[in-house]
Amino acid sequence: MEQSLPVGVDNFEKLVTRGYYFIDKTWFMKELLDKKGDVSGMPV
After folding, report:
1. Averaged pLDDT in 10-residue chunks for the chain of 44 residues
2. Which of 6, 7, 14, 25 is deepest in the core (most CB within 10 A)?
3. Secondary structure of residue 32 in the 3-state scheme
């Protein structure tokens, strides 16, 4: 089965049952928020 990108799919069950790719960026977002750098656009 060929996997495709889940463009517009916002339901985790559909991601799993339809065989879409899923990339968990939870730790990436935590790292971005923890750094609070000038470039990220997050208020200090």
Report:
1. 76 87 83 72 56
2. 6
3. helix
